[in-house]
Amino acid sequence: MTRKPGVQSKSESGLSSARLVSSYLFSRPKTRLALLLAAPVTWLVLIYVVALVALLITAFWSVDSFTGEIHMTWSLDNLQQVFTQALYRTVTFRTVGIALLVTVIDLVVALPIAFFMAKIAKARSQRIMVILILMPLWASYLVKAYAWRSVLSHDGILQWLVQPFGLSTPGYGLAGIVITQAYIWLPYVILPIFTGLERVSNTLLEASSDLGAKSGKTIRLVVAPLLLPAIIAASIFSFSLTLGDYITVNIVGGPNQMLGNLVYSNVGAANNLPLAAAIALIPVALMFGYLTVVRKTGALENL
Amino acid sequence: MRSDTTPAIKLVGLQKKFGSTIAVENLDLEIRQGEFFSMLGPSGSGKTTVLRLIAGFELASAGTVFLDGKDVTQSAPFDRDVNTVFQDYALFPHMNVIENVAYGLRVRGVGKAERLAAAAEALATVQLAALASRKPSELSGGQRQRVALARAIAVRPKVLLLDEPLGALDLKLREQMQIELKELQRKLGITFIFVTHDQEEALTLSDRVAVFNNGRIEQLGTPRELYEEPASSFVAGFVGTSNIFSTSESQKLVGTSSVVSIRPERLRLSEAASHDTGTVSLAGQVQEVIYLGAAVRVIVLCEQIPITVLHQFDYGPAPEREASVFVSFKRTDLVSLGN
């Protein structure tokens, strides 16, 4: 009985100091906001914005071809080289073509899968499918790329599968890159479309059918407009991720190069960081352009 | 073939199972042309499932749905000449009001000028012409309700299905919409099938009401029939309020050996017993007095059995709690519900 008051007062004092901080913060919403956002804003500014700006600045510097040292004098040589030399144009078109193809293939595959998951599958099978789609993301990117290298090889499983039909594996090359990238980025395309479809309520589909629309018209007039933001979000994933890839190309691409490979070889073998930075600006500019176009259509407002 | 005697909707042996649960059991029902027909029941009684079977959102496990004499049991919703006003309105969020209303005509291939004119007319019918270019998200609940209604009538269906359309509205608006619905139905002359769990709404609006319970119809009749001659204790309890006495209770109170019910407004309170012929007077003690504004609800304990009395102020002042009173009623007002 005699000890009890002491114990109580100790816990009370601990409580009251926490209480003091709480009530201090309660009356100062701006301080609260600052504490909440301090870490993410620091990260965003220091690591993200500063790195991007550094990239932009580096593109205007040059390298002494004899000593390999970076000269911090302003020049447009790198950008001029990137814009005028045929090599960079060819690789840019190839990279954009691959990214577009991967995006289209992923959308074509993802839409029916997402539709099945969101509108047809029962709760249990829906959960299983989400897990199945997420599972490849837990495996290393390299493992998946090498798995496709083995699948695509001339004595691989694909060759064995299609040989009876008089076909053969595409082997290593552009087709291999497209197939592998489409496989690797597919989960990033399915999931946004799935969540987008889940937000299209079933009664809207019923209402459309009730008013006389057959499935095709319901999809065109109701589902597609409501799903467009999700489709765009999904396409941003597959397009930008393909745009920046260089590892898959090395593993299944044969002799082909994408923009990422040019950046990589300039950072490494050629030791020309400014030129690498100038090349890296191409995908940045492309994505910026894509997002601007998308924003103009108003699709992002419904996100 | 078709004449005005062909029922607008005819359901024969209709059954719907979800897995092992039976939602609708062997239902036969005829709904007349131009009728305001209500399906009334607690949630889970199968009334909404019947509506969805008529609309085509669910396919029947057994039985037939005739729409205007035509078998539509296996038809898709877009092939059925009925339209639905959904409980959550189901307005297309990416279209404005007039586009929503014109949607049914648009998918039927009606030209733009023509369908917008027809949609404007439908909007005028529900007094929303001024809001044609608003998005559904910019409307109040009552306005959305009207848009949903306009959208459904714009395609001039033979039958309009309404799935608890007033459920989400507040009381005043609901009463106003009830009047408007009734007027609209008279003006358009189309059959309305109205699903509700609100018995008062069903009684005020309908020509006929089907009371649903556990997937079957407990009673089908005019509002007056349901109220004054309930066929079962479920109907007596669900439609309005009733004093329902079990066989043992009615034995004690009125000396009959069947379940009987009597409406609270048929009972009178007095300080002395009535000796009129055909009148029963029961001595009791007032247990509770609840003020309702226009009247008082008095609960009287007679023989340890609580009896609810609706006491109008015209009959005299309301009794005090714990006062000794007599509850009197005419024997003919008792409704026998069998055993």
Radius of gyration of chain A: 27 Å
Residue stretches of chain A low in confidence (pLDDT < 50, at least 5 long) are 1-10
The assigned structural class of chain B equals alpha+beta
Number of helices of chain B: 9
Please compute the radius of gyration of chain B using only Cα atoms.
24 Å
Let me know the number of strands of chain A.
2
Mean pLDDT over the full residue set of chain B: 91
In terms of topology, how is this protein built?
The complex is a heterodimer of chains A (303) and B (339).
Chain A: H1 3-26, H2 29-58, E1 62-63, E2 70-71, H3 77-84, H4 86-120, H5 123-138, H6 141-152, H7 157-162, H8 174-198, H9 202-210, H10 215-243, H11 247-252, H12 259-267, H13 273-297
Antiparallel strand pairs in A: 1-2
Helix pairs in contact in A: 2-13, 3-4, 4-8, 4-10, 5-8, 6-8, 8-10, 9-10, 10-13, 12-13
Chain B: E1 9-18, E2 21-31, E3 36-40, H1 47-55, E4 62-67, E5 70-71, E6 82-85, H2 97-107, H3 112-125, H4 141-153, E7 159-163, H5 171-188, E8 191-196, H6 199-205, E9 208-213, E10 216-221, H7 223-228, H8 233-238, E11 243-245, H9 247-254, E12 260-262, E13 268-270, E14 279-291, E15 295-302, E16 305-312, E17 324-330, E18 335-336
Parallel strand pairs in B: 3-8, 3-9, 6-7, 7-8
Antiparallel strand pairs in B: 1-2, 1-4, 4-5, 9-10, 11-12, 12-18, 13-17, 14-15, 14-17, 15-16
Helix pairs in contact in B: 2-3, 2-4, 3-4
